[in-house]
Design goal:
A: mainly beta, six-stranded mixed β-sheet, globular, B: four-stranded antiparallel β-sheet, 0% helix
Chain lengths: 111, 125
């Protein structure tokens, strides 16, 4: 069972804004470990979407943004597009487990 | 082009072992740790462990340490994960991923910046 909790699913119409939460604890996100986000399109490998809480790699559209506060982090997608339909995972490090950890994953559906 | 290319689909019987490879190209293999991540059918991502591709040291998640071994052959820029005593619930896609540490020549500090395409391991009972 993952120590980072995400909503199982979120949905929105094209052009809308959706947010995905990633809730952790004092041994991971709250311990100031960085949060990273990955997008996984159906049948493909994950790809890095956001690193160090809020930085987009080259090639990632600016409609994706990340934030972190306390023991939680969020991914926002503004101007939702059909191609954004995918699974999204947050990831951090947990000092109690001494493990890297992933969130439970969120499926984004474009209505 | 920086990439990780994994070996192909495997079908094994319960109790068997399997070794999956992950070949790096386009960068200095020994400059970056390689991590392994498991994804069971319809499930999320689960971290398995890492290997220091320079020294060969490895660290495993407690969930996998008794039946997984990570190795590497630096001469051919390839990392391996061996899964032993396979069970049907080990059926999953196994991914390797490059870890971008603060001391490495990459931008995405502390993230998994490059992923292999995944290797499906199917275990029959």
């Amino acid at each position: 069972q993952s120590v980072l909790t995400q909503p199982p699913s979120v949905s929105g119409a094209p052009g809308q804004r959706v947010t995905i939460s990633c809730t952790g604890s004092s041994s991971n996100i709250g311990a100031r470990y960085d949060v990273h986000w990955y997008q996984q399109l159906p049948g493909t490998a994950p790809r890095l979407l956001i690193y160090v809480n809020n930085i987009r790699p080259s090639g990632v559209p600016d409609r994706f943004s990340g934030s972190k506060s306390g023991t939680s982090a969020s991914l926002a997608i503004t101007g939702l597009q059909a191609e954004d339909e995918a699974d999204y995972y947050c990831q951090s490090y947990d000092s109690s487990l001494t493990n890297y950890v992933f969130g439970t994953g969120t499926k984004v559906t474009v209505l | 082009q920086v990439q990780l290319v994994q070996s192909g689909t495997e079908v094994k019987e319960s109790g068997a072992s399997v070794k999956v490879s992950c070949k790096a190209s386009g960068y200095t293999f020994t400059g970056y740790y390689v991590h392994w991540v498991r994804q069971a059918p319809g499930q999320g991502l689960e971290w398995m462990g890492w290997i220091n591709t320079d020294s060969g040291d490895a660290k495993y998640s407690q969930n996998f340490q008794d039946w997984v071994t990570m190795t590497r052959d630096a001469s051919i820029s390839t990392a391996y994960i061996e899964l032993k005593r396979l069970r049907p619930d080990d059926t999953a896609v196994y991914f390797c991923a490059r870890y971008c540490s603060a001391s490495a020549n990459c931008y995405a500090t502390n993230a998994f910046d490059i992923w292999g395409q995944g290797t499906l391991v199917t275990v029959s009972s």
